[in-house]
Amino acid sequence: MWIGQRLSSLVFLSLQRNQFRGMIPHQLCGLKYLQILDLFVNTISDTIPPCLNNFTSMAKKVSLDRRIELHLLDEVTSLWFIQLRYVDEALLTWKGTKQSYPQLGLLLAIDLSCNKLTGEIPEEVNSLQELVALNLSRNFFTGKILQKIGHLRQLEVLDLSRNKFSGNILTSLSELTFLSILDLSYKDLSRKIPTSTQLQNFDLSSFSHNSGLCGPPISPNCSMVEPSGKPAVGGEEDSDVFMKWFYTGMGLGFAVGFCGFCSVVFFKLSWRHSYYRYLDNAKDWVYVSFVLLKARFVRRIKALSTSCTRSD
């Protein structure tokens, strides 16, 4: 990619809402001065390159004034100089809302949302300790949330929603004391939300659609939530045991009743005669009922054919 080679001093790169596809080129990591990378709404696939730690402006604290300024020095005549200074602003999207940042020099952001990125988040992202905003939502990332995400101490915005992350929310996330926007919804996270002043102050929607999560702000505690993979007390396991005993008892009852009936009929002559007489009467009743129904049906057919002949 020529951008990483010819525009090595690039600070703000926004390619949002295009039709770019394929993978993120490794040449992009050559932009060591990059402060804002915005690839929002494209069809970029594959994994995030691990060389993101080459973004020096995001990885190290610099003493330079963080204002993106473009100084143009244009010599009009040999005696007159005109100096122009241009300060732009960024329009970034977080949690579905657009937010304007008038001072780009104070913002260090990566927005790769609404693409088709896969795999796990590379560990090298942990080295971007000056990063202010990270949006990886609406992709196909898997695995667990970064183990050392707490190293991103300057992070104010974190959106990892609508991916395929699993596991628990790491306690290191509670170390992000500047965090003001958090979205971990629509994933497969489980267990208790780490206790911290920051995480418990977020809205319920920040953790929604994670069926295994518990604790504030989702629920007061985790006493009513069983660990995944283990049956709850009085739940499925008890139900299976009950059904096994139910069918066993029903089978034994049928066997005992049948054997008792056969024994009585076999050993008691009067009962045996009564039983056989009952069977003969039942057989005769069924036979007579069938013959009567058959005769009635034949009469109706004949009557119907006779009426049709007369009408003709």
TrEMBL record:
Q: Which UniProt keywords apply?
A: Glycoprotein, Leucine-rich repeat, Membrane, Receptor, Repeat, Signal, Transmembrane, Transmembrane helix
For this record, the Gene Ontology CC terms, alphabetical, are: membrane
UniProt feature coiled coil, ranges: none
The record's section on InterPro entries has:
Leu-rich_rpt, LRR_dom_sf, RLP23-like
Q: Which domain of life is it from?
A: Eukaryota
Segments spanning the bilayer are 245-267
Q: Does the keyword Ligase apply?
A: no
> Where does the protein end up?
Membrane
Q: Would you identify the family this protein belongs to, as annotated?
A: Belongs to the RLP family.
Protein name per UniProt: Leucine-rich repeat-containing N-terminal plant-type domain-containing protein
Supply the source organism for this entry: Gossypium mustelinum
